[in-house]
Amino acid sequence: MKKFYLTTAIDYVNNLPHIGHAYEKIAADVLARYWRSKKIKVLFQTGTDEHGLKIAKAAKAAKKSPAEFVSQMVSKFEQSWKNLDISYDNFVRTTNPGHQKKVQDYLIKLQKARVIYRGVYSGFYCIGCEEYKTESELEQGRCPIHKKTCEKVSEAVYFFQLSKYQKQIYEIIKSGKLKIEPESRCNEVLSFLKKEKLKDIAISRSRVSWGIPLPWDKKHTIYVWVDALFNYLTGNHSQEYWPADLHIIGKDIIRFHGIIWPAMLLALKLPLPKKIFAHGYLTVSGEKMSKSLGNVIDPDKLVEKYGADAVRYFLLREFSFGADGDFSLARLEERYRADLANDLGNLVQRVLKMVQKYHVKIIAKNNQGLTGVEKDIENLKFKTALDKIWDIVITANQKIDQAEPWNIAKKDPKKLAQFLNQMVSRIILVANTLAPFMPETSKEISIQVQTLKIKPIFAKK
Ligand code: MSP
User: Fold this and answer.
1) What percent of the chain has pLDDT over 70?
2) Dist. CA 452 → ligand 1 center (Å)
3) Same domain flag for 186 and 66
4) Is it the case that residue 367 has pLDDT exceeding 80?
5) Which domain holds residue 445?
6) pLDDT tens, 113-134?
7) Do 189 and 71 sit in the same domain of this protein?
């Protein structure tokens, strides 16, 4: 039986989940549901990244121990994914003892492979990125992403010989053996590999205590990014399902996944993931979401007001998955009203009401999905897929307006039955194709078609 191992990034738990995190989990969930419907054995893994300075600092600010702090935060993430109907199979917490043990084992294997050496790192550190920065990367001493002054540090560390893999990784990506999508992101990684000389990376920290102890030198903890990347191999059944068929991540963390991760896997002589897809970044009114700006959009609030399916639909219909997007509540309201309540909701209501009123026998059956949409989903072209589904919805409404079935009813009941069956067949087609995107709505439409217990699918807001 064919398998599909699909992962998302694991989220830092220093802050509450926002729609950027949700966007990624929703997209992955659509794929997981889609492949399951094709009878493929899916392992869908997500989780939380709980170590490092950033988290330790947040715990301190909340006057909690890191362990207590992360546990509380993790339950918020789990709750949000439940609210959004995210059907993951594994949820890896990097503070799980099982994960920690396996990461330590991988580190020992790396050491045995002689790709690790001891040294001292002196330079700058951005806590937001959890990454060392070179002076040339900084803008007036600040991280260009987090706009915060980077600390000057000097610490004893162990290095991983990343530099050794520069040429090999370039070839692997260039040849398509490891696919990076969209193309623009692939080119970004390739041109980085071509222009910059890769430096060895520090994989341990002696200044950071909130982390997994380095097995052969307990004064050090394992660098949080190394700890995090190994989650892809530490979940339940992750090793059996390895290599990952797809890592879904945001564009900001492409180098960790496209360069550091493959290098560690090469050192361990393990197969490489087949594909990495880096989605775009969501902003709010053109601004990065941040606590200090107070513009963080809470997915729970959206789900409470509009329902999980409407939020899932909106995020994937409004933005092309590979591109950046600007979130707007007004656009969500507009799409809720126009696309969901009007186009889809009305189509189902008016057709089923006529079926009921004119006592039409439903013979329409449709177990198929809409052709073309499957490839779009497989290629993570969710917006294109939804555009196609809505074409069917909109043209069905137009056909009804033109055909005026209420007039046919008076003259030709047979023709009416035929026409309404055609429309029901379209509705079933739409419901089937929508299933991975809007699982509850799809189910609800199917039930209403079968029972004719008709009620509005999207109440007017
Ligand atoms: N913990 C690391 C990932 C380790 S994976 C081995 C991390 N965490 S994060 O919480 O900052 O981000 C988690 C995921 O959410 C990343 O893929 C990131 O790109 C994505 N997003 C975070 N903010 C986002 C937006 N504003 N918009 C879209 N995606 C965003 O990075």
Assistant:
1) 100
2) 43
3) yes
4) no
5) 328-451
6) 999 999 999 889 998 899 988 8
7) yes
Instruction: Pick from 21, 50, 95 the residue to mutate for probing ligand 1's pocket: most ligand atoms within 8 Å of its CB.
Output: 21
177 and 245 housed in the same domain? yes
- Active-site residue, selected from the candidate residues 51, 129, 150, 186: 129
Residue 146 a catalytic site member: yes
- CATH at residue 57: 3.40.50.620
Residue 288 annotated to the active site: yes
- Both 333 and 274 in one domain: the answer is no
Mean pLDDT of 130-156: 88
CB 7 within 8 A of CB 25: no
Taking Cα atoms as reference points, which of 239, 221, 269 lies closest to residue 94?
A: 221
Helix (H/G/I), strand (E/B), else coil: 61: helix
Which atom of ligand 1 lies at the shortest distance from residue 9's CA? 5
- Residue 242 tokens, joined: 């390895």
Domain assignment present for 40: yes
Reply yes or no on whether the pLDDT at 107 is more than 90: yes
CB 27 within 8 A of CB 88: no
How many domains does one find in the chain? 2
User: 51 catalytic, yes or no?
Assistant: no
Residue 105 lies in a domain: yes
For residue 321, tell me if it sits in a domain. Answer: no
C-beta of 20 in contact with ligand 1 (< 6 A): yes
Structure tokens at 366: 């449709």
Q: Which amino acid is at 184?
A: S
Residue 85 has pLDDT above 90, yes or no: yes
Q: What mean pLDDT comes out for the span 221-246? A: 98
Mention every residue, 6+ apart, whose C-beta is less than 8 A from residue 430.
344, 370, 389, 392, 393, 445
Judged against a pLDDT cut of 90, whether residue 341 lies above it is answered with yes
- Residue 193 identity: L
Please state whether the predicted TM-score (pTM) of the whole model is above 0.85: yes
State the pLDDT at residue 79. Answer: 98
Same structural domain, 227 and 336:
no
Q: What is the CA radius of gyration of the chain?
A: 25
The 10s digit of each residue's pLDDT in 401-435 is: 999 999 999 999 999 999 999 999 999 999 999 99
Burial class (CB in 10 A: 0-12, 13-18, 19+), 411: exposed
